[in-house]
Specification:
The protein has helices spanning 16-34, 49-57, 109-119; strands at 12-14, 39-44, 63-72, 83-87, 97-105, 125-133, 146-150, 156-157, 173-175. The chain has 182 residues and is an alpha/beta fold. The strands form 2 sheets. It has a 6-stranded mixed beta sheet, with helices on both faces. The protein has a 3-stranded antiparallel beta sheet with strand order 1-9-8. The protein binds inosinic acid and magnesium ion (MG).
């Protein structure tokens, strides 16, 4: 199959320049809010890896990284809100300023589950940064503290986000049409 980026029907929702500019804004906002304190960035695998790498370089504060992985059990109904941890924290979070970094906040299930897990280890503060926010599908009462762009109920790929594990490496964010062929 030709690369997704070359398929004319795959609309670009945000191009790399728009993404870079917004990430810079978020990094500035976070740096100001931290007021010189250090931060532990916790990326949610795998989608947030690219956003985390860009965001971390736009933050002036002293930053360390960690990652958490989670997946839903089985092929699961959407009511199953308990997730299986596929990668646990390596760094202690006690008394740290933690930012949970997510590619896209959708139903909120993942972020709420992982935030609860981090909260059990007494962080000094915990905030959520999501590059995209799709509030239309929210099932949990949760909002991100830092949002790149709020979008309608589109399925998007690129900039870390996948469809069947593909397209994460596309530099722009594209809308995947509902009829996308396998
Ligand atoms: P939530 O637990 O429903 O908030 O789901 C969050 C996860 O679902 C994200 O980290 C993504 O991996 C995935 N996801 C949700 N919407 C999209 C999308 O439009 N494209 C790609 N992945 C998505
Ligand atoms: Mg995913």
């Amino acid at each position: 199959m030709a690369t997704l980026a070359k398929q004319p029907e795959l609309e670009v929702l945000f191009d790399r320049e728009q993404i870079a500019a917004r990430v810079e804004d978020l990094g500035g906002e976070i740096s100001r809010d931290l007021a010189g304190e250090s931060v532990l960035l916790v990326g949610i695998l795998k989608g947030a890896a690219i956003f985390l790498s860009d965001l971390s370089r736009s933050i002036t504060a002293d930053a360390t990284f960690d990652f958490l992985g989670a997946s839903s059990y089985g092929t699961g109904s959407r009511s199953s809100r308990t997730l299986r941890i596929t990668k646990y924290l390596d760094m202690p979070v006690e008394d740290r300023n933690v930012i949970l970094v997510e590619d896209i906040l959708d139903t909120g299930t993942t972020v709420v589950f992982l935030r609860r897990l981090i909260e059990q280890h007494a962080p000094r503060s915990i905030r959520i940064a999501a590059f995209l926010d799709k509030p239309a599908r929210r099932l949990e009462k949760v909002e991100a503290d830092y949002v790149g762009f709020r979008i309608p109920n589109y399925f998007v790929v690129g900039y870390g986000m996948d469809y069947g594990e593909r397209f994460r490496n596309l530099p722009d964010i594209h809308i995947l049409p509902p009829t996308h062929p396998e």
